[in-house]
Design a protein that fits this description.
Layout: H1 5-26, E1 41-43, H2 45-54, E2 57-63, E3 68-73, E4 83-88, H3 94-102, E5 106-109, H4 116-142, E6 161-163, H5 179-193, H6 196-199, E7 208-212, H7 219-230, E8 234-238, H8 249-263, E9 267-272, H9 291-303, E10 312-318, H10 326-329, E11 336-339, H11 345-355, H12 367-373, H13 379-395, H14 403-415, H15 426-444, E12 451-455, E13 465-468, H16 479-500, H17 510-525, H18 558-585, H19 587-600, E14 602-604, H20 605-613
Parallel strand pairs: 1-4, 2-5, 7-10, 7-11, 8-9, 9-10
Antiparallel strand pairs: 2-3, 3-4, 6-8, 12-13, 12-14
């Protein structure tokens, strides 16, 4: 059985403890004082002096270098019989010997007869020697494992995973939805395999490529594909592995990593989450030495210093490019910056095809429908979606994934786990009116997204939910669209007021009102969509420690602040009045929809619109 260093340590501790007590017991100084056990009684030193003065002491035997005395005394208190008594003598008693001689007491001293010197030498060497042997075995055992104490002197070495012809199991065919980024790296792989195509026209190999994008968009997956396609030595490391508590370790690991890479050039170095070591310099307080800055300085030097790194391509990934040091981003270090964004409809469809290869999906399920229902989903989100659907299918003992499981998986990912259904009560009816209010305003307002589903099934913290199908392009939003969203968010609260009265309004619209205020404020202060004018009045200020906005600083006068508050109020008030008008004009439709919702608990978007079209025209 192969023992770990922890098990070896646990085995060694009892041996060391037992050895210590054995040493204390066996190797203590041994004295030849068998007579010590003859005395059955003890006497104080003061009483002993009184016995001498009275002439009762007949003989004294000294032991332990004069620290112990066995006396023979006889007297009336002792039954006029000779008794042997033990007396502990003080360290300094010069008058004792004189007094004993003057009384004519028979005095005898017994020296220690033992091989103390030899045993002391053996005892002093045994325990330290045993300790050294145990520690030697411990370090030797741990040196054969990774991360043990035997590697304490190698903490400055790079922890990069080195692979030649890396077998990651991922190639470019497995990467979907990021065609532009994939084309960039296909070019680099070609450069590594056949550099003569490029050098013939004077082109040089890029030194670094930085992958930038939100989490889950496939940056690390793309790096694995590069490793699988390039057939060159591949080093992979995380930015956090350069950071240690020891001063200088990060810079040492950078030097060691590039030293190994130069020995195996041409090769690829992949640094994941480079923002852990590549943040902007000069953010320390008081000008103190920052270990992370020293690591970054070394990385800058290795990538493009006096020596250079010919034949080494550094690929890094981050989702926080805004906090990276500008010296790291310049050409010559990271020559290219590739954005890996959230996929569009075509990209989502390709990603679903990739992840559906090993899933048993019902042929009736259309992946294009799923792709259209999941705008804003990243590649990781889509992979998780199909996995959750597969788990639900297995729980229900089905053989294939159907659209029902996929719908449930989407709801679970976005809103949380499904809760217990509400019982029929006033609270359930109030929630039904609230959700129908959101849905009907969203349907009857021209620029609002379409209703996808209205449900009374609780999920997460929400007691009811109204789903809207988000627009494909969320990057550009018009003023009318923002106002439509404000009205849709106010629909639930307004419906509660009109149907149940102001005194029965609940706290259910708390989150809705936060969204309303936020959207109105952004219209005024960031997008210039108010009477104040086309001004951006609030900007995110950078924080040197977080690399992000810590809070908005006041960049305008108190007079402008008053105008901002008035404009926000006016926008919300206008949307509120329009929402009240829609709810009052469609009260009959709302009552009908509430009855259907309470009965069925869920109304799909198509059915919802069919019911409304029976009473009014949808814009």
């Amino acid at each position: 059985m192969k023992l770990s260093w922890k098990n070896l340590l646990l085995w060694s501790l009892p041996i060391l403890v037992v050895s210590f007590f054995v040493w204390q017991g066996l190797f203590a100084p041994v004295t030849n004082d068998n007579n010590n056990n003859v005395a059955s009684s003890r006497m104080t030193y003061g009483r002993f002096l009184e016995y001498i003065d009275m002439g009762w002491v007949k003989k004294v035997d000294l032991y332990d270098n004069g620290h112990t005395a066995i006396i023979e005394a006889v007297g009336p208190e002792l039954g006029n019989r000779i008794q042997k008594i033990r007396v502990e003598l003080p360290i300094t008693a010069p008058e004792l010997i004189t007094k004993l001689k003057s009384q004519g007491v028979d005095l005898d001293a017994h020296p220690i007869k033992s091989n103390t010197a030899v045993w002391n030498l053996i005892g002093n060497l045994f325990f330290p020697l045993l300790l050294i042997i145990s520690l030697t075995l411990l370090f030797r055992r741990s040196s054969n494992t990774t991360g043990g104490p035997g590697q304490a002197m190698s903490f400055g070495k790079s922890k990069a995973l080195f692979q030649v012809e890396a077998k990651t199991g991922v190639i470019f065919d497995d990467v979907a939805g990021i065609d532009e980024a994939k084309e960039e790296f296909e070019e680099i792989v070609t450069f590594l395999k056949k550099p003569e195509y490029f050098t013939a026209v004077g082109a040089r190999i890029p030194k670094g490529v930085l992958l930038i994008g939100p989490p889950g968009t496939g940056k690390t997956l793309l790096a694995k594909a590069i490793a699988g396609e390039a057939n060159v030595p591949f080093f992979s490391i995380s930015g956090s592995e350069f950071v240690e508590m020891f001063v200088g370790v990060g810079a040492s690991r950078v030097r060691d990593l590039f030293k190994k890479a130069k020995e195996n050039a041409p090769c690829i170095i992949f640094i994941d989450e480079i923002d852990a070591v590549g943040r902007q310099r000069g953010t320390g307080i008081g000008g103190g030495n920052d270990e992370r800055e020293q690591t970054l300085n070394q990385l800058l030097t290795e990538m493009d210093g006096f020596e250079g790194n010919t034949g080494i391509i550094v690929i890094a990934a981050t989702n926080r490019a805004d906090i990276l040091d500008s010296a790291l981003l310049r050409p010559g270090r990271f020559d290219r910056q590739v954005n890996v964004d959230i996929p569009d409809f075509k990209g989502r469809l390709e990603i679903l095809h990739v992840h559906a290869r090993n899933k048993k999906i019902d042929p009736k399920v259309s992946l294009s429908i799923i792709a259209r229902r999941t705008p804003g989903f990243s590649g990781a989100d889509l992979a998780n979606l199909l996995n959750e659907a597969a788990i639900l299918t297995a729980k229900q003992r089905k053989n294939k994934i159907t659209l029902q499981e996929i719908d449930q998986a989407i709801d679970r990912i976005i809103a949380g786990m499904e809760g217990t259904a509400l019982i029929d009560s006033k609270s359930k009816r109030l929630i039904a009116y609230h959700e129908i209010g959101h849905a009907i305003v969203g349907t009857l307002v021209k620029d609002h997204e379409h209703v996808q589903k209205v449900t009374l099934i609780p999920r997460g913290q929400a007691r009811g939910l109204t789903w809207f199908t988000p627009a494909e392009d969320q990057s550009l939003i018009s003023r009318s669209q923002i106002k439509a969203r404000i009205m849709g968010a106010l629909g639930g609260r307004v419906t509660e007021e009109i149907v149940f009265g102001e005194s029965e309004v609940t706290t259910g619209a708390g989150n809705d009102l936060q969204q309303v205020t936020s959207m109105a404020r952004q219209m005024v202060t960031r997008f210039g969509m108010s009477n104040i004018g086309p001004l951006s009045l609030e900007n995110e200020s950078s924080n040197p420690f977080l690399g992000r906005g810590m809070g908005n600083t006041s960049e305008y006068s108190d007079e402008i602040a008053i105008k901002i508050d008035k404009q926000i109020h006016d926008i919300v008030e206008e949307c509120y009045k329009n929402t009240v008008k829609i709810i009052k004009n469609n009260r009959v439709i709302i009552d009908k929809l509430v009855d259907v919702l309470i009965e069925k608990e869920t109304i799909e978007g198509e059915e919802f619109r069919r019911i409304i079209e029976q009473y009014t025209k949808i814009p």
